[in-house]
Specification:
Elements lengths: L1 H23 L4 H29 L4 H18 L7 H9 L5 H27 L4 H9 L11 H22 L4 H18 L10 H7 L8 H24 L26 H5 L1
């Protein structure tokens, strides 16, 4: 259990630092997005370590990895309320005209930077080789296993399908209580990751994918970009179009649903009715 204890300590440090940072920079959207992306990527990198190496070096089965993924997503939702750390969510706000173009670009840049810093921090943590599991992971850093197990076309479809599911639920629950949102999103994202394990790992988050798999050999940077950027953006755009019936940034009128009144106004009596 020493491997699990070390991982739990790592998770606690990441969550603690992220929670403090979230409070200190609450007024700066770009910094909060940086912290959210950092926390997501840092935790997912360790979860993937447990999934890849844990069963051989730490007697940790796949069920432990799934449980840790769910817990990390739930805790992230509690600590980072109102902050996504996900470029596709930010760009959806742009398409809805909820945020400006400059704000969206800066947020996406902060998310990518946060994911990159998480990769550096995780690498330094693995170099400490606190357990056999982390020693093996440290040796594997330059030859990590790619998450893209299918062709780029199939990968785009898999990520788009996962993103479509996530963003539809996100839009439906957007104005609901956090008490309802957090467990549902944690379960949904855990399921998407589990279902996509043999395809793309179901990240539905371009910055997260950048930290976890873009540096791994096996595919070109273009292939990774197509799958982990184009896929989520297609799914997000389709979800927004299905939910609203249009893309507010591109179309001013509803293309899918007619805006009929919910209640009919009773017609006035005709002269014939009055005479009878």
């Amino acid at each position: 259990m020493s491997g699990l204890n070390a991982s739990l300590g790592y998770f606690l440090v990441v969550v603690g630092v992220s929670a403090v940072g979230r409070v200190l920079v609450a007024r700066w959207v770009f910094l909060t997005e940086f912290i959210a992306a950092f926390a997501l990527a840092a935790c997912r990198l360790e979860v993937d370590t447990i999934a890849e190496v844990g069963q051989w070096a730490g007697a940790l089965g796949p069920d432990v990895a799934v449980t840790m993924l769910f817990i990390s997503l739930a805790v992230h939702g509690v600590v980072m309320q109102g902050v996504s750390g996900n470029p596709s969510v930010t760009l959806m706000g742009l398409l809805q005209k909820d945020v400006g173009a400059v704000s969206a670009i800066l947020s996406v840049a902060a998310q990518l930077l946060g994911a990159y810093v998480a990769l550096l921090v995780a690498g330094k943590y693995w170099q400490m080789e606190l357990t056999d599991m982390h020693m093996i992971k440290n040796l594997m850093m330059s030859e990590c296993s790619t998450s893209l197990q299918v062709s780029p076309l199939q990968g785009v479809f898999a990520e788009a399908l996962g993103a479509l599911s996530f963003h539809l639920i996100y839009l439906v629950l957007k104005n609901r209580s956090q008490l309802l949102q957090i467990p549902i999103f944690a379960v949904l994202l855990t399921f998407i990751a589990y279902a996509g394990n043999n395809y793309t790992s179901g990240y539905v988050n371009p910055s997260l994918a950048y930290a976890v798999t873009f540096t791994c050999p096996g595919n070109t940077f273009l292939a990774y970009s197509l799958v982990y950027w184009l896929g989520p953006l297609i799914g997000m755009t389709l979800a927004l179009f299905l939910y609203l019936g249009n893309i507010p940034l591109l179309f001013s009128r509803n293309l899918l649903y007619s805006k009929k009144g919910r209640f009919r106004v009773p017609k006035g009596k005709t002269s014939e009715d009055k005479s009878s």
